Amino acid sequence: MLSPDQLLAAPCPRAEVRIERADIPSPELSRFLYTAVGGQWYWTDRLGWDYARWLAYLDRPVVETLILYVAGTPAGYVELEVQGDDNVEVAYFGLLPRFVGQRLGGYLLSAGVRRGWEQGARRVWVHTCTLDGPNALANYRARGFRVYDQMTDWAMLPAATPGPWPGAGFPPPPPV
Question: What's the CATH number for 4-142?
Answer without folding.
Answer: 3.40.630.30
